[in-house]
Specification:
It is built from 4 helices and no strands. By secondary structure, the protein is mostly helical. The chain is globular and about 30 Å long.
Length: 79
Amino acid sequence: MNKTDFFELLADYSGVPVKNISSDTRLDWDLGLNSMDFVALLDKVEERFDIIVDDSKFDEMFSSTYTAGELLNIISECC
């Protein structure tokens, strides 16, 4: 999964134009995602990129991920 494709997914999901999304974009403040959105977003990531996010990483992602870049790094490491 590359950064451009991931940011396009974030844009599609959040409704925020992809030109406004960078590695420093906050998932909560900038994209308006809440905890339920986060779970649904991970499902979209798995579906679009044909990967399975390790359940053991879910707590780490959910509790300590604030930016698009952080989420991309965690997903890339576990998949």
